[in-house]
Specification:
By secondary structure, the protein is an alpha/beta fold. Helix content is 27%, strand content 28%. It has four helices and eight strands; from the N terminus they run βαβαββαβββαβ. Helix 1 crosses helix 2. The longest helix has 14 residues. The protein starts with a strand and ends with a strand.
């Protein structure tokens, strides 16, 4: 698996990266976002939403677990699993159905997925480097996402710090 490390020097740069990512996403795409509280996961999702043409304000669905936005070129399903105590809670809610709706599924705190984690997805890890600066690590799981990652990094708005294979 190839990983790319990028650097964003502002929340605006993180959102611009999200807009660029949105231009490459396809029906059924799954993007998993990890990182500490305040790392920029929701800011990145706001950029994805803007790039998809979502007209509603995008906020973190920490208390509602899932928020759906249908106004863009593809539906955006934004999940925040921070408050999920056990992956079995997601199975009881029928969470896996979101992967079958043909929209873009963005999940914050994906470790809570357990066995519901799909076999193929794009994984983005955001690490806090300073008040506005973030490192974004891009890892593709599956061939469609490997191609997407290459396009994302090759023509993207953020500088590449490193690549590892």
């Amino acid at each position: 698996m190839t990983q790319y490390r990028l650097r964003a020097d502002s929340a605006q740069a993180t959102q611009e990266f999200g807009r660029h990512l949105a231009s490459l996403l396809f029906p059924g795409a799954v993007v998993l976002l990890s990182g500490d509280l305040g790392a920029g996961k929701t800011a990145l999702t706001q950029g994805i939403g803007a790039g998809l043409g979502v007209s509603e304000p995008i906020t973190s669905p920490t208390f509602t677990i899932v928020q759906e936005y249908a106004s863009g070129r593809l539906p955006l399903i934004h999940a925040d699993l921070y408050r999920i105590g056990d992956p079995s809670e997601l199975a009881e809610l029928g969470f896996e159905e979101y992967f079958e709706r043909g929209g873009v599924v963005v999940i914050e705190w994906p470790d809570q997925l357990g066995e519901l984690r799909p076999p193929e997805y794009l994984e983005l890890r955001l690490d806090y480097l300073g008040p506005a600066e973030r490192r974004i690590t891009v890892a593709a799981h599956g061939s469609a996402y490997a191609r997407l990652a290459e396009e994302l990094v090759g023509g993207g708005p953020l500088p590449v710090e490193s690549t590892s294979i």
